[in-house]
Amino acid sequence: MVDVIHAPLEVQEAEPLEREEWLSLENEQTGESYELIEGELVPMARTDNEHGAICARLGFALKMYSMQIGRLARITESSGPYYTRGDDRTARKPDVAFTFYTDRVPVAQEPVFYMNAVPDLIIEVISPGNTAEEMDDKIQEWFSFGVRLVWLIFPKSRRVYVYSDNRHAYILTRDEKITGGDVLPGFESPLKAIFED
Questions:
Q1: 74 touches 104 (CB < 8 A)
Q2: Are 127 and 48 spatial neighbours (Cβ–Cβ below 8 Å)?
Q3: DSSP 79-116
């Protein structure tokens, strides 16, 4: 049994860093990508070409799904932070985030650097530098933020851990299909298509 590390928070008005301020801070720290955790910039694990390819395939599959069902959605990748604790001190950058546009999450009229809206699906693609403790913290935080579905993708073992809550996961292997369940009804993709070289 896993304890929740953060209780759900009411959404508050945050005063997040503007894009230029964030990038300036990152550039001062050797130009690498960082998440903001309790006010501290924490370096993100380095990624490789395969990591990027998997994220691109997933993003494309999700975009096609959105178009096929006729519902607009925002699909982001790891350059955009989400303020997950209701303030401006912690911001996570998921590898892929999928958010249906609704009355709660209206279509953006202009580009935004950060998001306070809660994604429906978060995808994290595991890199060699990720630790089990780090990923467990992220899973807990995403569900505390209100995310309903999290996929952890393991490129080397060709496995996917599917979480519909912060305590339970089931594992899919390369020869199976991944679905969106109740969160993304009708979404289905063979994992072979995601892991193909």
A1: no
A2: yes
A3: TS-EE-SSSSS-EE--SEEEEE--SSSPPPSS--S-B-
Cβ–Cβ under 8 Å, residues 16 and 82: no
Q: Is 153 helix (H, G, I), strand (E, B) or coil?
A: strand
pTM: 0.80
- d(CA 41, CA 147) in angstroms, rounded, equals 23
For the chain, the straight-line distance linking the first and the last C-alpha, in angstroms and rounded, comes to 36
CA–CA distances in Å: residue 101 to residues 30, 71, 143, 158: 36, 8, 19, 31
Which amino acid, one-letter code, is at 138? Answer: K
DSSP summary character for residue 44:
P
Could you report the per-residue pLDDT of 120-179, keeping only the tens digit for each?
999 999 988 888 998 999 999 999 999 999 999 999 999 999 999 988 899 999 999 999
What own/partner pairs with CB < 8 Å and gap ≥ 24 does 72-78 have?
72/100, 72/101, 72/107, 73/98, 73/99, 73/100, 73/101, 74/98, 74/99, 74/101, 74/105, 74/108, 74/115, 74/117, 75/99, 76/115, 78/33, 78/44
